[in-house]
Design goal:
There is one protein chain. Helix content is 25%, strand content 26%. By secondary structure, it is of the alpha/beta class. The chain has a domain at 86-144 and 220-313: D-Amino Acid Oxidase, Chain A, domain 2 (2-Layer Sandwich). The strands form four sheets. Strands 6, 7, 8, 15, 16, 17, 18, 19 and 20 form a nine-stranded mixed sheet that branches. Strands 10-3-2-14-22-21 form a six-stranded mixed sheet, covered by helices on one side. Helix 1 links the parallel strand 2 and strand 3 (31-34). The protein binds flavin-adenine dinucleotide (FAD).
């Protein structure tokens, strides 16, 4: 007899794990997660995993806020130790973007997000080791922080297994099978599995499964790098997480003694099956110089290594989430654009709601997959000017 499942999730990154979690929370137990390698072996395992709220639009802010609450309630909801570390988060922009920052903070606060505008003096009180020269205002999120992305994924999958669902690793899906535009199953390296509902959560590998269906959303896999620096003194490095668009940089504490830094520069197209997994030699001094502009002590930061991961960039830098037009029973989260760890709890919930309830509780139409074909790519009036588009934060 041909194997079957009520729903199949392809990919065990944070999005696939979250979707499977919510499917089981909504009462489905005949759920199968298929993973090409091991859980969190894609972008998730390489993620900086900042969990913060600052977006220049209400749609992503809502997803981020719902997800922050999920991370804060992790132990009750998931039942494994919390992967979330609350450090606070600071968003700094170039002086010409100050009015946009103020507008974004007002929008976020109207949605109930714990965000406040702080002066340079207040930032200096928060982080006495910081150089605040030239800073006028910043956005401060006292409840934000970062998470261990592998522990988060494994925790969700643990709960999924407990609910009776199956997770199979080392099994690549080769094709999504359709009949008269209705999903009927998947073909894997080991055989065929029948199902009426498939969730595509394969991060930077998406084009491999979309192309045979005649689908092209202009998605480009891109390599993103990070480097870690040990503080050279006993100075407490438990600083806030942050994004500084004026420098083109994001960062967070790493362990008790170090800081992890990512840059917008040098993000190039890459093949997720074959890319250099370590940071480039030139990246390390560039990252050190960038972080030293804010934390001067780190001009002498001791390089502890770095790595690269591959994210999937969408043409407008915003994810595509929802049903795949033209294929009944096919749902996707595409083009994470380097920003979709933090929103995965809410995104997974919405995908599960589509399958189980027919529609998500939150209006996700701005994320619709048809927006490029409609000639309506996403544009935010209060997005910040940058030398390079941010893909990783
Ligand atoms: C260096 C770096 C820093 C980042 N920093 C942040 C940050 O600070 N905050 C933030 O929110 N986001 C950040 N991101 C982005 C975030 O990590 C991603 O948006 C998120 O992890 C995407 O999760 P995913 O589950 O969609 O994809 P992935 O984690 O890539 O998972 C896809 C999974 O699908 C599997 N798969 C692929 N093809 C198949 C197939 N055919 N069959 C079966 N399985 C398959 C893969 O093996 C993989 O495990 C960062 C990313 C990187 C690389």
């Amino acid at each position: 007899m041909r194997e079957s499942a009520e729903a199949i999730v392809i990919g065990a990154g944070i999005v696939g794990a979250s979707t499977a979690y919510w499917l089981t929370q909504f009462g489905l137990s005949d759920v199968l997660v298929l993973e090409r390698a091991v859980p969190a072996s894609g972008a998730t395992g390489k993620s900086g995993a900042l969990v913060r709220l600052h977006y220049p639009n209400p749609h992503e802010t809502r997803l981020a806020l719902e997800s922050l609450r999920f991370f804060q309630e992790w132990e009750v909801r998931v039942g494994t130790p919390s992967p979330f570390v609350c450090t606070g988060f600071l968003q700094v922009v170039a002086p010409e973007d100050e009015q946009k920052l103020r507008a974004n903070v007002a929008m976020q606060r109207a949605l109930g997000a714990p965000v406040e505008l702080v002066t340079a003096q207040e930032v200096a009180e928060l982080e006495p080791w910081r150089d605040v020269a030239g800073l006028t205002v910043a956005a401060y999120e006292p409840e934000s922080g970062y998470a261990d992305p592998v522990a988060a994924t494994l925790g969700l999958l643990h709960r999924v297994r407990q609910a009776g669902a199956k997770i199979r690793t080392g099994e690549r899906v080769l094709a999504i099978e359709v009949e008269r535009e209705q999903v009927i199953g998947v073909r894997t390296e080991r055989g065929h599995i029948a199902t009426g509902a498939v969730v595509l959560a394969v991060g930077p590998w998406a084009n491999q499964l979309l192309a045979p269906l005649g689908l092209n959303y202009g998605l480009v896999p891109r390599r993103v790098q990070v480097a870690i620096f040990r503080w050279p003194s006993d100075l407490a490095p438990r600083h806030c997480c942050g994004i500084d668009t004026s420098v083109g940089m994001w960062y967070r504490p790493e362990g008790e003694t170090s800081t992890l830094v990512g840059l917008e520069a040098g993000v190039v197209p890459a093949d997720p099956d074959q890319y250099a997994e370590t940071a480039d030699a030139a990246f390390v001094p560039a990252a050190r110089a960038a972080i030293a502009r804010r934390y001067p002590e780190l001009a002498h930061g001791i390089a502890r290594g770095g790595w690269a991961g591959v994210v999937m960039q969408s043409p407008d830098g915003r994810p595509l989430i929802g049903p795949v037009p033209g294929y009944t029973g096919l749902f996707a989260m595409l083009g994470d654009s380097g920003t979709s760890f933090k929103t995965a709890p809410a995104v997974g919930r919405a995908l599960a709601e589509w399958i189980v309830h027919g529609t998500p509780a939150q209006d996700l139409s701005p994320f619709r997959l048809t927006r490029f074909a409609e000639g309506q790519p996403w544009v935010d009036a209060t997005d910040y000017a940058r030398p390079h588009r941010t893909v990783s934060r």
